[in-house]
Amino acid sequence: METITLHTTTREQMLDITSAIRELVSTRGWRDGALLLFCPHTTGALTVNEAADPDVARDMTVNMGRLVPRHGDYRHAEGNSDAHIKTSLFGPSLMLIVDGGEVRLGTWQGIYFCEWDGPRSRKLWAQWLAQ
């Protein structure tokens, strides 16, 4: 298992980690199989979405704030219930296909770490699943 360290700069942020994941696959010489990414934080998530236009990540972040507002009818004492809910909506893991040493994504797709309670230093766990 590999550990990837990330640093976010705002409370809510979709951080494009596509290059870091591709570099990890290349550096380790992984060829054909699957890569499991898992976020061990209850207020951080992972997703694949459009990376060609940064407005997509902005639109997702802004509208998640409208769907699940920061302040609401929450009882969790830490004051970050919205972040827990947003994380559950996105999910903590991704399974990515690696073919011929390349992470297989659609033309416009990128891999994002979704920060919902930052800024923070975060970890992702990457587990190689060989064919």
Automatic annotation (TrEMBL):
Q: What is this protein called?
A: Secondary thiamine-phosphate synthase enzyme
Coiled-coil region(s) at which residues? none
Q: SUPFAM superfamilies from the xrefs?
A: YjbQ-like
| PANTHER family xrefs | UNCHARACTERIZED PROTEIN YJBQ-RELATED, UPF0047 PROTEIN C4A8.02C
User: Which NCBIfam families is this protein grouped with?
Assistant: TIGR00149_YjbQ
Family of this protein: Belongs to the UPF0047 family.
At the highest ranks, the source species' classification is: Bacteria, Pseudomonadati, Thermodesulfobacteriota, Desulfovibrionia, Desulfovibrionales
Q: Which domain of life is it from?
A: Bacteria
